[in-house]
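Page 37, continued from 36.
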């Protein structure tokens, strides 16, 4: 399991606020990723106000209009229209809401499950560690994509089902990292001092251990959020994810595959948006890993 995420919890020492701020401002990748992500979040929040049209409104007389940078394009539909005459700019803007909702929701669900298991295994050890390790090993033996495809195919591909299935499947990395981090933090002096002062086990875990493994939790969270967004797009592309008429970027790509040789923008626009979102999240994760690392890290 150690080959999933290479981490050294003790190395992630607490960085003074002033030094941490300087590291953040000097890290170009983190700043660029944060700016791109902030813009996408802002677009998602303002989509109802800045979208030029209803993303669900169909106009069959206005099908497959090219974007404005094509010769036949029009500013009435800056990104053109799809095969049902729906405005592509509006659907792209609303698609950001779905991707962010899925990424954040899956991260919270899987993070809660994995962190709880990892903290319990790493702090208590013994039989609890053996049981949690067995659960993690069992989960790792199940291919996420195949299990998600099977469950969604049997239950249905609603937005809620997709979030629930991915959240219940993608907690293993959280558990592995939190277990490893907690095992090294639990024997440090401040934990022993809290234990000697009579603090309860729950208080020690929540007040002493968890804050000191939080940098690792944040980094894993960004990785899992990006992974969940891509997995949802893959499920939607196969027709087993978010169902029409929701403007999911993966579903938009799936609906456009029959027109890719004649109307390439139908795939290029949602594909570029999806790639940009995942890239920004990964850049933020890499940057947070670097700025929370010890001074010896380059």
């Amino acid at each position: 399991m150690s080959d999933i995420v290479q981490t050294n919890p003790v190395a992630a020492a607490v960085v003074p606020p002033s030094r941490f701020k300087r590291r953040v401002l000097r890290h170009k990748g983190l700043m660029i990723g944060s700016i791109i992500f902030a813009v996408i979040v802002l677009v998602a929040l303002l989509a109802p106000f800045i979208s030029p049209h209803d993303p669900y409104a169909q106009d069959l007389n206005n099908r497959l209009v090219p974007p404005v940078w094509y010769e036949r394009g029009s500013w009435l539909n800056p990104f053109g229209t799809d095969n049902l005459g729906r405005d592509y700019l509006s659907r792209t803007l609303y698609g950001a809401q779905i991707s962010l909702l899925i990424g954040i929701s899956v991260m919270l669900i899987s993070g809660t499950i994995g962190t709880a298991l990892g903290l319990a295994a790493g702090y208590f050890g013994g039989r609890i560690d053996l049981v949690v390790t067995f659960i993690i090993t069992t989960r790792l033996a199940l291919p996420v994509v195949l299990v998600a495809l099977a469950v969604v195919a049997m239950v249905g591909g609603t937005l809620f089902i997709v979030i629930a299935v991915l959240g219940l499947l993608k907690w293993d990395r959280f558990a592995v990292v939190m277990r490893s981090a907690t095992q090294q933090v639990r024997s440090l002096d401040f934990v022993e001092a809290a234990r000697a002062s009579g603090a309860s086990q729950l208080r020690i875990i929540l007040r002493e251990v968890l804050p000191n493994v939080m940098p690792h939790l944040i980094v894993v969270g960004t990785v899992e959020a990006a992974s969940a967004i891509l997995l949802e797009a893959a499920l939607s592309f196969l027709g087993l994810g978010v169902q029409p008429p929701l403007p999911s970027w993966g579903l938009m790509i799936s609906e456009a595959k029959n027109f890719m040789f004649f109307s390439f923008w139908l795939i290029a626009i949602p594909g570029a948006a999806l790639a940009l979102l995942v890239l920004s999240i990964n850049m933020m994760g890499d940057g947070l890993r670097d700025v929370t690392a010890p001074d010896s890290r380059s």
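The chain has eleven helices and no strands. Flag for discussion at group meeting. The mean pLDDT is 86.
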